[in-house]
Amino acid sequence: MRSTHKESHLIARIGWLRAAVLGANDGIISTASLILGVASADASASGTLLAGVAGLVAGAMSMAAGEYVSVSSQADTEHADVARETIELASNPVGETEELAQIYVARGVDAGLARQVATQLMAKDALAAHSHDELGISEATIARPIQAAMASAATFTTGAAAPLILTVVSPPNLVLPVVAAGSLLFLALLGMIGAKAGGAGILRPTIRVMFWGALAMALTTGIGALFGKAL
User: In this model, does residue 32 exceed pLDDT 90?
Assistant: First the structure.
């Protein structure tokens, strides 16, 4: 009995994974940096916490809006290309069949076989064939603005909640070291999760996200301390 071998590829995750990792990473770094900057300026515990909460809300809304707008622009471009391709298929089906065949020839398929494949695919679903092989638009990589916006907002909120919780549970005189160290640990965990979900090695992504997080927190802490004393 003939069996069908179905493979599951990680590329199908690229749309939501990118937005999710970006959202969580930005949530941890921006909120932790904000808290550390305010705390290093000798602000009260309640003021520091309030700044963190405000950063969480503003950041989540900003991430959602930014992702929606940017991914919508990609979707608009895809729709415009598909609409243009639809017109070309209606006005010049023979030329479009040859164009599709030449794409397969360029990939190493024999010219005669390539024309047969192109003809059969055009007969079944011409627009789908050209969208996939000419425009590079597939179900796995197609732009999904709402999905990207929701993933970014949700993961930003989750990431931002980590330094906020650390702020609440740490003694006022230990806010700076606790939030800094704890946020770096959360960033390391995020780097490992993102790498694992994407099928990549763990070490390099983890070091990368920790380095940039530490740099951002160090800069804002220094600025807060500098201007806090000056004011």
Answer: yes
